[in-house]
Amino acid sequence: MMNIKKIAVLGAVSVMLGAGLHATNAAADVSVMIPAGPGGGWDGTGRQAFGAMNAAGIYTDGVSFTNTGGAGGTIGLAAFQNSEKGKADALAVFGAITVGSIMLNSSPIDLSTYTPIARLTAEHLVIAVDSRSEIQTLEQLVTALKENTGAVPVGGGSAGGVDHIALALLAQAADIPVADLNYIPQTSGAETVTGIVNGTLVAGISGISEFVPFEEQDRIRILGITSAERHASLPDVATFKEAGFDVEIANWRGILGAPDMPADNAAEWVARFDALNDSDAWAQVLQTQGWDGFYLSGPAFGDFIAAENERIGDILKGAGLIE
């Protein structure tokens, strides 16, 4: 059984800008690669961050978003790398999912070649079934998995991503062979909910922000959350640990700059995100979306990414998902 401890907050670098911040707003518009389809967690992170940055007066010039989904973000990031290398105002959203997907897909992407800008949020995961399902608790879902693992399809994000890892860890904690799981990757949390409701999936895993709106519409029933303690936005939902499964994991998301981004531009973008992190507009976004702040910027974020490569690699090996 593997015990995943909550990702430690490594620290925050906060640099408040003065007049110089606004003077830089005359810069050219920024292009933002979102390596996933519209409506998901990365899409929301990118658009909400720049919306809050605009509201706070930190960056008010134009922003163009490009959604290129597939393979846990590796397709979009590969396109970003090829087309945006060396550019001053080219950014990409990514997260823990990408780190695992690069390994699982044997992608040639090397995250150390990108410019680390800022880690923004962490979001814990929830697992849910159809609101009409006879399965009322996480323990009952695990029992169904034990009885006939392959007959219980569970959907979530990309293969090798945090949703897949969370299910593998739950299986390990319940003495269910990970190799027997019937995990079906989906393009978004909304697609996972569709699969749950139409019966294609027995259960699904996703972030809090993607599932809670559907629970409020009484379309799904959330059975458990992967946080250490009950989340403020889901006070009636038990943690995996409370249900007897020692699993704790979160999905972090952040911003990368283009490979070989000029140093002055990289510092400027780090300063803008530092200011965003200190803004009331961003605090409101975190509260509204149910995200937890998980801020880190610049070179320290690059060190964190390197450490995550090692940590997630060990998890995937331990779960039998890679050799």
Commentary on this structure:
The protein has eleven helices and ten strands. With 323 residues, it is an alpha/beta fold. Strands 1, 2, 3, 4, 5, 6, 7, 8, 9 and 10 form a ten-stranded mixed sheet that branches. 48% of the residues are buried.
Number of strands: 10
Sequence of secondary-structure elements: HEHEHEHEHEHEHEHEEHHEH
Number of helices: 11
General shape: globular
Main structural class: alpha/beta
Which radius of gyration do the C-alpha atoms yield? 19 Å
Given as residue ranges, the uncertain stretches (5+ residues, pLDDT < 50) are 1-28
Strand content: 15-25%
Percent helix range: 25-40%
Main pleated sheet: 10 strands, mixed
Give the N-to-C terminal Cα separation: 18 Å
User: pLDDT average, as an integer?
Assistant: 88
Quick structural overview:
This protein is an alpha/beta fold. The protein contains eleven helices and ten strands.
Topology record:
Elements: H1 19-23, E1 30-34, H2 41-55, E2 63-67, H3 74-84, E3 90-95, H4 96-104, E4 115-130, H5 138-147, E5 154-156, H6 162-173, E6 183-185, H7 189-198, E7 203-207, H8 208-216, E8 220-225, E9 250-257, H9 263-277, H10 280-289, E10 292-297, H11 299-318
Q: What are the main properties of this structure?
A:
323 residues; alpha/beta; 10 strands
